[in-house]
Specification:
With 280 residues, the chain is of the alpha+beta class. The chain has helices spanning 27-33, 35-55, 58-68, 79-86, 96-102, 111-123, 155-158, 169-175, 195-203, 216-220, 257-272; strands at residues 72-77, 92-93, 131-137, 149-153, 162-165, 189-191, 221-222, 231-232, 234-238, 241-242, 246-251, 276-279. Helix 11 (257-272) links the parallel strand 11 and strand 12. Helix 4 packs parallel to helix 11 (257-272).
Amino acid sequence: MLCNNCGCEVRTFAERCHVCNADVGFPNVRAAADDKERSALAQRVRNAQIAATARGSTAALQAFGTAVSSSNAVLARPLGDLEAFVKSDNVLYISYHSQVRSGARIPEENEWDKGREAAESTINPVYFGKINYTALSLDGFGVLWWGEYSVVLREKHIALRTSVFEENPFIFCERHRVAAGKSPPKGFRATWDARQDLAIAKLSGKIAASTENNEYASILLNQGTSRANADFIECHTFGPIHRTSIERVVGPRPKDPRDLIIWRSVVATLQKIGAIVEEV
């Protein structure tokens, strides 16, 4: 890519031109919009459609894709994290890596936190620390293993800076045997407005002619039985998220009286900023 302002070559990981400092767009979105990436994804979609024709599920697959074109990016967090996020207009939700580097968070003693930097930097090189991760959802629920409260983000606040990726980068790099620092295979990411194409390419084998509309949500985001086998398309949003980007929160009414006090405060704050709250 060349800078639109000065014509110099823009590095793949750059946010601004290193020569004239012009804004060159979000690097994760540019990576998803790359011609080779689009072409590889288009081939996966064609293969999915051919297979669907052979199974007699073309109409169902098309309907699934149409549904996914209206899907949301959803963040799942525990009540305490949600309270911290919404309590002040001066608070920003920042990425895991930003929290760790600022000293605000300690990595957990597990294989995920030990290996995630290598995996995520392979998928989003150099700029991975600025990416916030959510899941693509049709029913408002995020990956509940990360928290019982699902935060649906406003599309207009994240669409321009969000790309979608096949699955958790840690799992993806293991599955495709991508060594840290090596280029991952093409065709497994997409821009926000092409998220339905990635869903079709990935999940066509789970769509039968008899698949009903009410099954789409659990196909797109399968909660699984643990963090390790939850299956979903990941949303990669560049930069921090402000509380006014919350469109809706879905979660349970706490049974513990102490948590209920916190929840009521969170609900009042969310309603004040115009977010919808759904107790389930």
